[in-house]
Amino acid sequence: MVQTHTYQEIKRQPETWRQTIGMALSRADEVKQTFAALQPEEVIFTGCGTSYYVSIAAAAAFQEKTGLPAWSVPASEVFLNPGSVFSKKRKTILVGCSRSGNTTEVVRAIEFARQNKLAHCFAITTRPSSQLADKADTVFHLSHVQENSVVMTGSFTNMLLAAQLLAGILPGDEAYLGELKRLPEIGEDVIARVESLAKDIGKDRNFSHYIYLGMGAQFGLANEGMLKLKEMTQLFSETFNPLEFRHGPISVLDEKCRVILLSSQSIRPYERDVVDDVRKFGANALVIGDRLEDFQCDIKIELNSGLTDLARGVLYLPFLQLLAYYRTLDLGLNPDRPRNLDKVVLLKN
């Protein structure tokens, strides 16, 4: 098998996580001082595509860990519909996420917020020499995460991890930071165990419709899993909150549908009922998470992390990425260069 850029970038993720952890912790005092000086009343995470899904997961973790109101919006909303994004009565920090640092909507969002004095602007990017890094007030540089593939894999998990570390640093949550520090070692074990499963499942052509389910921070992760399959294979894939799935979308289930649940232990009884309904209506149910022995499903992907729901986040992604990768190869497509996509989306002036 030819090892594509996508494959190499998926496999190397645990080592890049180590470097992201070191970078963030080395800047802990600086970040605390910045937030202490600004006294923000809300934090808004923004991005486009994969980076928007980073923002969804990051905002959920940030609010739960810091107690500060936090939410996510697509970057275009920031400068095209600012009245629905910003409250003039609140001190705001805007966190822009972008692999390239040159995505037009994210750059314009930061520019707009600064020019109109709407927010202190924080950037998370893999490119220190980029428009986003130049225009933001504070920057987390992830220069150790450089990708050649059009498809974002390690950049997603590292930007999310950087945001999670920020959420642990600010309140001084040593227990949470301790969990995050364990991710590289656990991630190496997870990838070694799940790759063969991802390969076998990816080659299964019995399913042409994929549905990803996740709640809270896992909703952002489920969206990212969906996007990897959609952009690499062009297969029909979509994402829902697991309980919302019953309110209409469940009507599409049939024997050609595979439902992938990113399980959270905190809502386990509700998830079990959803999985039971998925199987009752003839679809295939795959569950990924920790301690899955009480699920009655078709496939279980045990992470065996021993971590809490909010700390475990990036561990779901290697399996989902590898599943999409192997399905792409089975279809005879190039995972590094998906159809109709460029590495950076640039808008005309």
UniProtKB/TrEMBL annotation:
Protein name (record): SIS domain-containing protein
Domain of life: Bacteria
Entries under InterPro entries matching the protein: GlmS/AgaS_SIS, GlmS/FrlB_SIS, SIS_dom, SIS_dom_sf
GO MF: carbohydrate derivative binding
Pfam families named in the record: SIS
PROSITE patterns: SIS
UniProt source species: Thermoactinomyces daqus
Single Gene Ontology BP annotation: carbohydrate derivative metabolic process
Transmembrane segments: none
Keywords: Repeat
Residue ranges constituting the SIS domain according to the UniProt record: 31-175, 197-338
Gene3D superfamilies per record: Glucose-6-phosphate isomerase like protein, domain 1
UniProt keyword Isomerase, yes or no: no
